[in-house]
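Subject: complex prediction, re-run

Hi both,

The earlier run crashed halfway through, so I resubmitted it with identical inputs.
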Amino acid sequence: MSLTLSEVNHIAKLARLDLSGEEKEQYRQQLSEILEYAARLQAVDTSSIPPTSSVLPPRSVLREDVATSSLDVNQILSNAPDAAGNQFRVPPVMD
Amino acid sequence: MNSLHNLSLRQAAKALRCGQVSSRELTQASLERIEKLEPALHAFITLIPDLALEQADAADKLLRTWRKDPQDDLPPLLGIPLAVKDLLAQANVRCTCGSRVLENFIPPYSATSVERLLNAGIVTVGKTNTDEFAMGSSTESSAYGATRNPWDTDRAPGGSSGGSAAAVAARMVPAAIGTDTGGSVRQPASFCGVTGLKPTYGRVSRYGLVAYGSSLDSVGALARTAEDIVPIFEQMAGYDPRDATSMNLPVPQITLTDNPDLTGLRVGVPAEYFIEGIQPEVETAVRRAITQLESLGAKVMPVSLPYTEYALPVYYLIAPAEASANLARYDGVRFGVRQPADSLLEMFHHTRGAGFGAEVKRRIMIGTYALSAGYYDAYYGQAQKVRTLIKNDFERAFEQVDVIAAPVAPTTAFRLGEHSGSPLEMYLQDVFTLPANLAGVPGMAFPVGFDSQGLPVGMQLMGPHFREELLFRITHAYQQVTGWHQQAPSLS
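This time it finished cleanly. Structure:
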Protein backbone atom coordinates (compact mmCIF):
# COMPACT_ATOMS: atom_id res chain seq x y z
CA MET A 1 0.00 0.00 0.00
CA SER A 2 1.75 3.12 -1.17
CA LEU A 3 0.04 6.44 -1.68
CA THR A 4 1.08 8.76 -4.47
CA LEU A 5 1.72 12.43 -4.02
CA SER A 6 -1.31 13.23 -6.15
CA GLU A 7 -3.50 11.14 -3.82
CA VAL A 8 -2.10 13.09 -0.86
CA ASN A 9 -2.91 16.32 -2.67
CA HIS A 10 -6.43 15.09 -3.29
CA ILE A 11 -7.00 14.15 0.38
CA ALA A 12 -5.55 17.46 1.59
CA LYS A 13 -7.91 19.28 -0.75
CA LEU A 14 -10.92 17.32 0.52
CA ALA A 15 -9.84 18.09 4.09
CA ARG A 16 -9.26 21.77 3.31
CA LEU A 17 -5.70 21.62 4.61
CA ASP A 18 -2.76 23.65 3.37
CA LEU A 19 0.29 21.40 3.52
CA SER A 20 3.88 22.26 2.75
CA GLY A 21 5.84 20.14 0.28
CA GLU A 22 7.71 18.59 3.16
CA GLU A 23 4.49 17.76 5.01
CA LYS A 24 3.03 16.16 1.91
CA GLU A 25 5.98 13.85 1.48
CA GLN A 26 5.98 12.99 5.17
CA TYR A 27 2.26 12.21 5.19
CA ARG A 28 2.61 10.23 1.99
CA GLN A 29 5.04 7.91 3.74
CA GLN A 30 3.29 7.82 7.11
CA LEU A 31 -0.21 7.37 5.72
CA SER A 32 1.04 4.58 3.48
CA GLU A 33 2.53 2.86 6.52
CA ILE A 34 -0.64 3.30 8.61
CA LEU A 35 -2.96 2.16 5.82
CA GLU A 36 -0.78 -0.85 5.20
CA TYR A 37 -1.07 -1.72 8.88
CA ALA A 38 -4.85 -1.22 8.70
CA ALA A 39 -5.05 -3.52 5.68
CA ARG A 40 -4.85 -6.51 8.03
CA LEU A 41 -8.55 -5.93 8.66
CA GLN A 42 -9.23 -7.23 5.16
CA ALA A 43 -8.33 -10.71 6.41
CA VAL A 44 -11.32 -10.77 8.78
CA ASP A 45 -14.45 -12.42 7.40
CA THR A 46 -17.26 -9.97 8.07
CA SER A 47 -19.68 -11.15 5.40
CA SER A 48 -22.44 -11.78 7.93
CA ILE A 49 -21.46 -9.09 10.46
CA PRO A 50 -23.41 -5.84 10.75
CA PRO A 51 -21.42 -2.63 11.30
CA THR A 52 -21.36 -0.91 14.71
CA SER A 53 -21.82 2.82 14.54
CA SER A 54 -22.92 3.14 18.16
CA VAL A 55 -22.38 0.85 21.11
CA LEU A 56 -25.66 1.91 22.67
CA PRO A 57 -28.86 -0.03 22.14
CA PRO A 58 -30.74 1.41 19.14
CA ARG A 59 -33.49 3.74 20.27
CA SER A 60 -35.14 6.92 19.13
CA VAL A 61 -34.43 10.08 21.00
CA LEU A 62 -37.30 12.51 20.75
CA ARG A 63 -38.26 15.59 22.66
CA GLU A 64 -41.32 17.76 22.80
CA ASP A 65 -41.33 20.28 19.99
CA VAL A 66 -41.17 23.35 22.18
CA ALA A 67 -38.93 26.38 21.99
CA THR A 68 -36.26 26.68 24.67
CA SER A 69 -33.79 29.43 25.46
CA SER A 70 -30.35 29.43 23.87
CA LEU A 71 -27.24 31.58 24.04
CA ASP A 72 -27.76 35.15 22.92
CA VAL A 73 -26.28 36.53 19.73
CA ASN A 74 -23.63 38.61 21.48
CA GLN A 75 -22.32 35.58 23.34
CA ILE A 76 -22.20 33.59 20.11
CA LEU A 77 -20.40 36.38 18.27
CA SER A 78 -17.95 37.02 21.11
CA ASN A 79 -15.52 34.47 19.64
CA ALA A 80 -16.00 35.43 16.01
CA PRO A 81 -12.81 36.42 14.17
CA ASP A 82 -14.91 38.95 12.28
CA ALA A 83 -18.53 39.99 12.62
CA ALA A 84 -20.84 42.63 11.25
CA GLY A 85 -24.23 43.31 12.70
CA ASN A 86 -25.56 40.03 13.95
CA GLN A 87 -23.58 37.99 11.46
CA PHE A 88 -20.23 36.35 10.92
CA ARG A 89 -18.22 38.09 8.23
CA VAL A 90 -15.98 36.09 5.88
CA PRO A 91 -13.85 36.85 2.82
CA PRO A 92 -15.58 36.74 -0.59
CA VAL A 93 -17.03 33.34 -1.45
CA MET A 94 -16.57 33.95 -5.17
CA ASP A 95 -14.27 36.25 -7.09
CA MET B 1 -1.01 22.64 58.41
CA ASN B 2 1.73 23.27 55.87
CA SER B 3 1.09 20.16 53.81
CA LEU B 4 -2.54 20.70 52.88
CA HIS B 5 -1.77 19.71 49.31
CA ASN B 6 -1.13 16.18 50.59
CA LEU B 7 -4.73 15.69 51.67
CA SER B 8 -6.68 13.25 49.53
CA LEU B 9 -10.09 14.33 48.29
CA ARG B 10 -11.81 12.38 51.05
CA GLN B 11 -9.53 13.78 53.74
CA ALA B 12 -9.99 17.31 52.43
CA ALA B 13 -13.78 16.96 52.38
CA LYS B 14 -13.74 15.72 55.98
CA ALA B 15 -11.45 18.54 57.15
CA LEU B 16 -13.71 21.10 55.45
CA ARG B 17 -16.79 19.73 57.16
CA CYS B 18 -15.41 19.85 60.66
CA GLY B 19 -13.90 23.26 60.10
CA GLN B 20 -10.27 22.20 60.47
CA VAL B 21 -9.51 23.90 57.21
CA SER B 22 -11.23 26.34 54.88
CA SER B 23 -11.70 25.96 51.15
CA ARG B 24 -9.62 29.13 50.73
CA GLU B 25 -6.73 27.50 52.60
CA LEU B 26 -7.02 24.33 50.54
CA THR B 27 -7.19 26.33 47.34
CA GLN B 28 -4.21 28.46 48.30
CA ALA B 29 -2.23 25.33 49.12
CA SER B 30 -3.13 23.92 45.73
CA LEU B 31 -2.19 27.14 43.92
CA GLU B 32 1.12 27.36 45.79
CA ARG B 33 1.94 23.77 44.96
CA ILE B 34 1.16 24.45 41.30
CA GLU B 35 3.27 27.60 41.27
CA LYS B 36 6.19 25.68 42.72
CA LEU B 37 6.06 22.62 40.45
CA GLU B 38 4.56 23.98 37.24
CA PRO B 39 7.91 25.10 35.76
CA ALA B 40 9.19 21.53 36.00
CA LEU B 41 5.99 19.69 35.03
CA HIS B 42 3.86 21.97 32.85
CA ALA B 43 0.60 20.25 33.78
CA PHE B 44 -1.60 23.26 32.97
CA ILE B 45 -2.39 25.34 29.92
CA THR B 46 -4.43 27.98 31.74
CA LEU B 47 -4.50 28.81 35.46
CA ILE B 48 -7.45 30.66 36.98
CA PRO B 49 -6.38 31.53 40.54
CA ASP B 50 -8.73 34.51 40.95
CA LEU B 51 -11.79 32.53 39.96
CA ALA B 52 -10.64 29.64 42.17
CA LEU B 53 -10.37 31.86 45.26
CA GLU B 54 -13.75 33.39 44.50
CA GLN B 55 -15.29 29.91 44.29
CA ALA B 56 -13.48 28.92 47.50
CA ASP B 57 -14.89 31.90 49.39
CA ALA B 58 -18.39 31.06 48.19
CA ALA B 59 -17.89 27.47 49.36
CA ASP B 60 -16.58 28.65 52.74
CA LYS B 61 -19.68 30.76 53.22
CA LEU B 62 -21.91 27.74 52.64
CA LEU B 63 -19.72 25.62 54.89
CA ARG B 64 -19.92 28.14 57.74
CA THR B 65 -23.71 28.25 57.52
CA TRP B 66 -23.85 24.47 57.40
CA ARG B 67 -21.61 24.05 60.44
CA LYS B 68 -23.94 26.22 62.50
CA ASP B 69 -26.90 24.11 61.51
CA PRO B 70 -25.73 20.86 59.90
CA GLN B 71 -29.03 19.35 58.78
CA ASP B 72 -29.12 18.88 55.05
CA ASP B 73 -26.54 16.84 53.28
CA LEU B 74 -23.75 18.98 51.91
CA PRO B 75 -22.57 18.11 48.40
CA PRO B 76 -19.44 16.02 49.07
CA LEU B 77 -17.34 18.06 46.67
CA LEU B 78 -18.12 21.48 48.12
CA GLY B 79 -14.93 23.54 48.34
CA ILE B 80 -12.62 20.90 46.85
CA PRO B 81 -10.03 22.20 44.36
CA LEU B 82 -10.10 20.28 41.08
CA ALA B 83 -8.44 20.64 37.69
CA VAL B 84 -10.31 20.28 34.40
CA LYS B 85 -8.81 18.96 31.19
CA ASP B 86 -8.61 21.68 28.58
CA LEU B 87 -10.85 19.69 26.25
CA LEU B 88 -13.95 20.46 28.30
CA ALA B 89 -15.68 23.82 28.15
CA GLN B 90 -15.89 25.88 31.30
CA ALA B 91 -17.89 29.06 30.80
CA ASN B 92 -15.77 32.20 30.40
CA VAL B 93 -12.47 30.33 30.77
CA ARG B 94 -10.20 29.90 27.76
CA CYS B 95 -10.47 26.44 26.19
CA THR B 96 -7.61 25.64 23.80
CA CYS B 97 -7.87 21.85 23.43
CA GLY B 98 -4.08 21.98 23.24
CA SER B 99 -4.39 23.61 19.83
CA ARG B 100 -3.20 26.88 18.33
CA VAL B 101 -6.43 27.11 16.38
CA LEU B 102 -8.34 27.66 19.65
CA GLU B 103 -5.69 29.83 21.30
CA ASN B 104 -8.22 32.61 21.91
CA PHE B 105 -11.44 30.62 22.33
CA ILE B 106 -13.53 31.47 25.39
CA PRO B 107 -16.61 29.26 25.52
CA PRO B 108 -19.77 31.05 26.64
CA TYR B 109 -21.11 27.85 28.23
CA SER B 110 -19.89 24.97 30.37
CA ALA B 111 -19.83 21.28 29.53
CA THR B 112 -22.60 19.46 31.36
CA SER B 113 -20.03 17.44 33.33
CA VAL B 114 -18.23 20.62 34.41
CA GLU B 115 -21.47 22.46 35.10
CA ARG B 116 -22.69 19.67 37.39
CA LEU B 117 -19.42 19.79 39.33
CA LEU B 118 -19.60 23.59 39.56
CA ASN B 119 -23.16 23.28 40.85
CA ALA B 120 -21.81 20.92 43.51
CA GLY B 121 -19.44 23.66 44.66
CA ILE B 122 -16.05 22.58 43.34
CA VAL B 123 -13.18 25.02 43.03
CA THR B 124 -11.54 25.05 39.58
CA VAL B 125 -7.84 25.93 39.65
CA GLY B 126 -7.19 25.65 35.93
CA LYS B 127 -7.32 23.79 32.64
CA THR B 128 -4.86 20.93 32.23
CA ASN B 129 -2.59 20.15 29.32
CA THR B 130 -3.66 17.67 26.67
CA ASP B 131 -2.48 16.31 23.38
CA GLU B 132 -3.96 18.53 20.67
CA PHE B 133 -7.68 17.67 20.47
CA ALA B 134 -6.82 14.62 22.62
CA MET B 135 -4.94 13.02 19.73
CA GLY B 136 -1.95 11.44 21.35
CA SER B 137 -0.64 9.20 24.08
CA SER B 138 2.00 11.45 25.64
CA THR B 139 0.79 15.13 25.69
CA GLU B 140 3.68 15.80 23.31
CA SER B 141 1.27 16.86 20.58
CA SER B 142 0.02 19.79 22.70
CA ALA B 143 0.75 23.06 20.94
CA TYR B 144 1.68 24.44 24.37
CA GLY B 145 4.53 22.01 25.07
CA ALA B 146 4.64 18.58 26.66
CA THR B 147 3.76 17.82 30.27
CA ARG B 148 6.41 15.94 32.19
CA ASN B 149 5.95 12.85 34.30
CA PRO B 150 6.31 13.68 38.02
CA TRP B 151 8.09 10.34 38.59
CA ASP B 152 10.78 11.20 36.06
CA THR B 153 10.64 14.53 34.31
CA ASP B 154 12.46 13.16 31.26
CA ARG B 155 9.48 10.91 30.65
CA ALA B 156 5.99 11.39 29.27
CA PRO B 157 3.03 11.43 31.65
CA GLY B 158 0.99 9.54 29.06
CA GLY B 159 -1.88 11.10 27.23
CA SER B 160 -3.97 12.63 26.26
CA SER B 161 -5.08 13.56 29.82
CA GLY B 162 -1.41 13.81 30.80
CA GLY B 163 -1.81 17.21 32.45
CA SER B 164 -4.61 15.93 34.68
CA ALA B 165 -2.65 12.79 35.62
CA ALA B 166 0.55 14.72 36.38
CA ALA B 167 -1.36 17.30 38.46
CA VAL B 168 -2.91 14.57 40.61
CA ALA B 169 0.33 12.59 40.93
CA ALA B 170 2.26 15.73 41.94
CA ARG B 171 -0.35 16.58 44.59
CA MET B 172 -1.26 19.84 42.87
CA VAL B 173 -4.92 18.88 43.17
CA PRO B 174 -6.61 15.92 44.87
CA ALA B 175 -8.46 15.03 41.66
CA ALA B 176 -8.88 16.10 38.05
CA ILE B 177 -11.28 15.60 35.19
CA GLY B 178 -10.08 13.85 32.05
CA THR B 179 -11.49 12.42 28.84
CA ASP B 180 -10.94 8.99 27.32
CA THR B 181 -11.43 8.21 23.62
CA GLY B 182 -8.85 5.43 23.28
CA GLY B 183 -7.26 5.28 26.73
CA SER B 184 -6.68 8.95 27.48
CA VAL B 185 -7.66 8.67 31.16
CA ARG B 186 -6.38 5.17 31.90
CA GLN B 187 -2.96 5.27 30.23
CA PRO B 188 -1.81 8.55 31.86
CA ALA B 189 -3.24 7.34 35.19
CA SER B 190 -1.08 4.25 34.77
CA PHE B 191 2.04 6.20 33.77
CA CYS B 192 1.65 8.63 36.69
CA GLY B 193 0.64 6.11 39.38
CA VAL B 194 -2.87 7.41 40.03
CA THR B 195 -6.37 5.96 39.74
CA GLY B 196 -8.48 6.81 36.70
CA LEU B 197 -12.02 5.96 35.61
CA LYS B 198 -13.33 5.85 32.07
CA PRO B 199 -17.10 5.45 32.51
CA THR B 200 -19.40 3.54 30.17
CA TYR B 201 -20.07 5.33 26.87
CA GLY B 202 -23.34 7.21 27.40
CA ARG B 203 -22.99 7.44 31.19
CA VAL B 204 -21.64 11.01 31.33
CA SER B 205 -22.91 13.68 28.95
CA ARG B 206 -20.54 14.68 26.17
CA TYR B 207 -22.15 18.10 25.82
CA GLY B 208 -19.30 20.63 25.99
CA LEU B 209 -16.65 17.95 25.58
CA VAL B 210 -14.91 19.08 22.41
CA ALA B 211 -15.59 16.25 19.97
CA TYR B 212 -12.81 14.00 18.72
CA GLY B 213 -14.32 10.57 18.03
CA SER B 214 -17.97 10.96 18.89
CA SER B 215 -18.79 7.25 19.12
CA LEU B 216 -15.82 6.71 21.46
CA ASP B 217 -15.42 9.89 23.59
CA SER B 218 -16.14 9.73 27.32
CA VAL B 219 -15.60 12.03 30.30
CA GLY B 220 -13.79 10.49 33.26
CA ALA B 221 -11.84 11.42 36.35
CA LEU B 222 -8.48 10.85 38.00
CA ALA B 223 -7.66 10.86 41.70
CA ARG B 224 -5.48 9.03 44.17
CA THR B 225 -8.05 6.36 45.01
CA ALA B 226 -11.18 4.83 43.56
CA GLU B 227 -13.03 6.07 46.61
CA ASP B 228 -12.07 9.67 45.76
CA ILE B 229 -13.51 9.30 42.25
CA VAL B 230 -16.92 8.17 43.53
CA PRO B 231 -18.42 11.61 44.31
CA ILE B 232 -17.07 13.05 41.03
CA PHE B 233 -18.55 10.20 39.02
CA GLU B 234 -21.90 10.40 40.81
CA GLN B 235 -22.04 14.13 40.19
CA MET B 236 -21.12 14.02 36.49
CA ALA B 237 -23.14 10.96 35.50
CA GLY B 238 -26.70 10.88 34.32
CA TYR B 239 -29.03 11.76 31.51
CA ASP B 240 -28.63 15.06 29.72
CA PRO B 241 -31.13 16.09 27.06
CA ARG B 242 -28.33 18.05 25.36
CA ASP B 243 -26.50 14.82 24.50
CA ALA B 244 -28.66 12.36 22.58
CA THR B 245 -26.20 9.56 23.41
CA SER B 246 -26.42 10.06 27.16
CA MET B 247 -28.48 7.25 28.59
CA ASN B 248 -31.56 7.85 30.68
CA LEU B 249 -30.62 5.45 33.46
CA PRO B 250 -30.51 5.95 37.20
CA VAL B 251 -27.01 6.71 38.49
CA PRO B 252 -26.10 4.10 41.07
CA GLN B 253 -25.31 5.37 44.54
CA ILE B 254 -21.97 3.75 45.13
CA THR B 255 -21.42 2.62 48.69
CA LEU B 256 -17.98 1.27 49.43
CA THR B 257 -17.34 -0.75 52.55
CA ASP B 258 -14.12 -1.26 54.48
CA ASN B 259 -14.53 -4.98 54.08
CA PRO B 260 -12.33 -6.02 51.14
CA ASP B 261 -14.05 -9.37 50.68
CA LEU B 262 -14.49 -10.20 46.98
CA THR B 263 -16.04 -13.63 47.44
CA GLY B 264 -18.38 -14.51 44.60
CA LEU B 265 -16.83 -12.14 42.05
CA ARG B 266 -15.37 -13.63 38.89
CA VAL B 267 -12.31 -11.95 37.38
CA GLY B 268 -11.41 -12.86 33.80
CA VAL B 269 -7.82 -12.73 32.58
CA PRO B 270 -7.52 -12.45 28.78
CA ALA B 271 -4.47 -14.15 27.25
CA GLU B 272 -4.63 -11.63 24.40
CA TYR B 273 -3.46 -8.88 26.77
CA PHE B 274 -0.29 -10.68 27.85
CA ILE B 275 1.45 -10.66 24.52
CA GLU B 276 5.03 -10.73 23.37
CA GLY B 277 6.61 -7.31 23.64
CA ILE B 278 5.02 -6.42 26.95
CA GLN B 279 7.57 -5.19 29.49
CA PRO B 280 8.17 -8.20 31.81
CA GLU B 281 7.90 -6.05 34.94
CA VAL B 282 4.46 -4.87 33.83
CA GLU B 283 3.26 -8.43 33.42
CA THR B 284 4.73 -9.45 36.79
CA ALA B 285 3.06 -6.58 38.66
CA VAL B 286 -0.31 -7.12 36.98
CA ARG B 287 -0.28 -10.87 37.59
CA ARG B 288 0.65 -10.25 41.21
CA ALA B 289 -2.33 -7.87 41.55
CA ILE B 290 -4.64 -10.49 40.04
CA THR B 291 -3.37 -13.01 42.58
CA GLN B 292 -4.11 -10.45 45.27
CA LEU B 293 -7.71 -10.17 44.05
CA GLU B 294 -7.89 -13.96 44.24
CA SER B 295 -6.65 -13.89 47.82
CA LEU B 296 -9.50 -11.48 48.61
CA GLY B 297 -11.95 -14.15 47.49
CA ALA B 298 -12.40 -13.42 43.80
CA LYS B 299 -12.51 -16.35 41.42
CA VAL B 300 -9.89 -15.83 38.72
CA MET B 301 -10.38 -17.57 35.37
CA PRO B 302 -9.04 -17.30 31.85
CA VAL B 303 -11.22 -15.56 29.32
CA SER B 304 -10.75 -14.99 25.61
CA LEU B 305 -11.17 -11.79 23.58
CA PRO B 306 -10.02 -13.18 20.23
CA TYR B 307 -10.45 -10.00 18.16
CA THR B 308 -8.22 -7.89 20.44
CA GLU B 309 -5.42 -7.75 17.86
CA TYR B 310 -7.72 -5.87 15.47
CA ALA B 311 -8.65 -3.13 17.94
CA LEU B 312 -5.69 -0.98 16.92
CA PRO B 313 -6.36 -0.86 13.15
CA VAL B 314 -10.12 -0.51 13.79
CA TYR B 315 -9.58 2.41 16.15
CA TYR B 316 -7.08 4.15 13.92
CA LEU B 317 -9.63 4.16 11.10
CA ILE B 318 -12.81 4.94 13.05
CA ALA B 319 -11.42 7.63 15.37
CA PRO B 320 -9.68 9.60 12.58
CA ALA B 321 -12.77 9.24 10.35
CA GLU B 322 -14.97 10.73 13.06
CA ALA B 323 -12.29 13.33 13.80
CA SER B 324 -12.05 14.41 10.18
CA ALA B 325 -15.77 15.20 10.29
CA ASN B 326 -15.75 16.74 13.78
CA LEU B 327 -12.78 18.99 13.10
CA ALA B 328 -14.36 20.43 9.96
CA ARG B 329 -15.77 23.13 12.25
CA TYR B 330 -12.35 24.76 12.69
CA ASP B 331 -12.59 26.83 9.58
CA GLY B 332 -11.98 30.33 10.95
CA VAL B 333 -15.60 31.43 10.55
CA ARG B 334 -17.25 31.33 13.97
CA PHE B 335 -14.44 31.00 16.50
CA GLY B 336 -10.74 30.36 16.83
CA VAL B 337 -7.78 31.84 15.04
CA ARG B 338 -8.44 32.85 11.42
CA GLN B 339 -5.66 33.21 8.87
CA PRO B 340 -6.13 36.10 6.46
CA ALA B 341 -6.98 35.19 2.86
CA ASP B 342 -8.56 36.69 -0.23
CA SER B 343 -11.29 34.11 -0.62
CA LEU B 344 -13.32 31.90 1.67
CA LEU B 345 -11.87 28.67 0.35
CA GLU B 346 -8.32 29.97 0.75
CA MET B 347 -9.18 31.06 4.29
CA PHE B 348 -10.29 27.52 5.17
CA HIS B 349 -7.06 26.06 3.82
CA HIS B 350 -4.76 28.61 5.48
CA THR B 351 -6.60 28.57 8.80
CA ARG B 352 -6.54 24.80 9.09
CA GLY B 353 -3.04 24.41 7.69
CA ALA B 354 -1.60 26.91 10.17
CA GLY B 355 -3.90 26.12 13.10
CA PHE B 356 -3.47 22.35 13.41
CA GLY B 357 -0.35 20.51 14.51
CA ALA B 358 1.23 17.51 12.80
CA GLU B 359 -0.68 14.73 14.60
CA VAL B 360 -4.07 16.37 14.10
CA LYS B 361 -3.40 16.89 10.40
CA ARG B 362 -2.24 13.29 10.13
CA ARG B 363 -5.45 11.95 11.66
CA ILE B 364 -7.64 14.26 9.58
CA MET B 365 -5.83 12.97 6.48
CA ILE B 366 -6.26 9.30 7.50
CA GLY B 367 -9.92 9.86 8.30
CA THR B 368 -10.62 11.77 5.12
CA TYR B 369 -9.01 9.01 3.11
CA ALA B 370 -10.92 6.26 4.93
CA LEU B 371 -14.20 8.04 4.21
CA SER B 372 -13.45 9.08 0.66
CA ALA B 373 -15.23 7.74 -2.39
CA GLY B 374 -13.91 4.35 -3.41
CA TYR B 375 -12.29 3.56 -0.06
CA TYR B 376 -15.22 3.87 2.36
CA ASP B 377 -16.27 0.19 2.27
CA ALA B 378 -12.76 -1.20 2.41
CA TYR B 379 -11.61 0.94 5.30
CA TYR B 380 -14.31 2.63 7.37
CA GLY B 381 -17.06 0.11 6.59
CA GLN B 382 -14.84 -2.88 7.33
CA ALA B 383 -13.58 -1.24 10.55
CA GLN B 384 -17.15 -0.77 11.75
CA LYS B 385 -17.87 -4.45 11.13
CA VAL B 386 -14.77 -5.63 12.95
CA ARG B 387 -15.79 -3.27 15.75
CA THR B 388 -18.93 -5.41 16.11
CA LEU B 389 -16.75 -8.49 16.56
CA ILE B 390 -14.70 -6.72 19.26
CA LYS B 391 -17.90 -5.70 21.01
CA ASN B 392 -19.20 -9.27 20.77
CA ASP B 393 -15.97 -10.51 22.40
CA PHE B 394 -16.78 -8.48 25.50
CA GLU B 395 -20.43 -9.52 25.56
CA ARG B 396 -19.44 -13.17 25.45
CA ALA B 397 -16.74 -12.71 28.10
CA PHE B 398 -19.16 -10.98 30.46
CA GLU B 399 -21.44 -14.02 30.31
CA GLN B 400 -18.65 -15.87 32.12
CA VAL B 401 -17.02 -13.24 34.34
CA ASP B 402 -17.97 -10.05 36.17
CA VAL B 403 -14.89 -8.05 35.24
CA ILE B 404 -11.77 -8.40 33.10
CA ALA B 405 -8.32 -7.58 34.48
CA ALA B 406 -5.44 -6.60 32.19
CA PRO B 407 -2.43 -4.32 31.90
CA VAL B 408 -3.20 -0.71 30.92
CA ALA B 409 -0.21 -0.29 28.62
CA PRO B 410 2.55 -2.60 27.41
CA THR B 411 5.24 -0.53 29.13
CA THR B 412 5.74 1.98 31.90
CA ALA B 413 6.23 5.67 31.02
CA PHE B 414 8.43 6.12 27.97
CA ARG B 415 10.89 8.94 27.43
CA LEU B 416 9.72 12.19 25.89
CA GLY B 417 10.56 12.04 22.21
CA GLU B 418 11.02 8.26 22.27
CA HIS B 419 8.16 7.56 19.86
CA SER B 420 7.89 10.90 18.13
CA GLY B 421 9.59 9.62 14.96
CA SER B 422 7.00 6.96 14.24
CA PRO B 423 3.24 7.51 14.54
CA LEU B 424 2.57 3.76 14.39
CA GLU B 425 4.93 3.10 17.28
CA MET B 426 3.07 5.70 19.34
CA TYR B 427 -0.30 4.19 18.38
CA LEU B 428 0.88 0.80 19.68
CA GLN B 429 0.91 2.34 23.16
CA ASP B 430 -2.88 2.22 23.08
CA VAL B 431 -3.21 -1.46 22.22
CA PHE B 432 -4.75 -2.47 25.58
CA THR B 433 -6.95 0.56 26.15
CA LEU B 434 -8.66 0.90 22.75
CA PRO B 435 -10.90 -2.19 23.02
CA ALA B 436 -12.91 -0.75 25.96
CA ASN B 437 -13.69 2.37 23.92
CA LEU B 438 -14.65 0.38 20.85
CA ALA B 439 -16.99 -1.77 22.98
CA GLY B 440 -18.16 1.20 25.08
CA VAL B 441 -17.46 -0.59 28.37
CA PRO B 442 -16.18 1.14 31.53
CA GLY B 443 -12.57 0.82 32.67
CA MET B 444 -10.66 1.66 35.83
CA ALA B 445 -6.88 1.98 35.92
CA PHE B 446 -4.96 1.92 39.19
CA PRO B 447 -1.38 1.46 40.36
CA VAL B 448 -0.23 -2.09 41.15
CA GLY B 449 3.53 -1.71 41.50
CA PHE B 450 6.71 -0.18 40.13
CA ASP B 451 9.32 -1.26 37.63
CA SER B 452 13.03 -1.43 38.42
CA GLN B 453 13.41 2.24 37.49
CA GLY B 454 10.81 3.31 40.02
CA LEU B 455 8.10 4.00 37.43
CA PRO B 456 4.48 3.12 38.26
CA VAL B 457 2.75 0.12 36.70
CA GLY B 458 -1.01 0.21 36.19
CA MET B 459 -3.67 -2.45 35.88
CA GLN B 460 -7.12 -1.94 34.42
CA LEU B 461 -10.43 -3.54 35.21
CA MET B 462 -13.09 -3.52 32.52
CA GLY B 463 -16.72 -4.25 33.29
CA PRO B 464 -20.04 -4.65 31.51
CA HIS B 465 -21.91 -1.56 30.30
CA PHE B 466 -23.15 0.65 33.15
CA ARG B 467 -21.57 -1.54 35.85
CA GLU B 468 -19.04 1.01 37.11
CA GLU B 469 -19.92 0.07 40.68
CA LEU B 470 -18.15 -3.28 40.19
CA LEU B 471 -14.95 -1.49 39.18
CA PHE B 472 -15.18 0.84 42.18
CA ARG B 473 -15.83 -2.04 44.55
CA ILE B 474 -12.91 -4.18 43.37
CA THR B 475 -10.43 -1.31 43.08
CA HIS B 476 -11.40 -0.07 46.53
CA ALA B 477 -10.94 -3.56 47.99
CA TYR B 478 -7.50 -3.77 46.38
CA GLN B 479 -6.58 -0.33 47.69
CA GLN B 480 -7.68 -1.35 51.18
CA VAL B 481 -5.03 -4.05 51.32
CA THR B 482 -2.20 -2.52 49.25
CA GLY B 483 -0.23 0.71 49.41
CA TRP B 484 0.84 1.37 45.80
CA HIS B 485 -1.69 4.18 45.41
CA GLN B 486 -0.23 5.95 48.46
CA GLN B 487 3.24 6.27 46.93
CA ALA B 488 4.12 9.78 45.82
CA PRO B 489 6.88 10.91 43.49
CA SER B 490 9.71 12.74 45.23
CA LEU B 491 9.46 16.31 44.04
CA SER B 492 11.30 19.05 45.84
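The first helix of chain B runs from residue 9 to 17.

- K.
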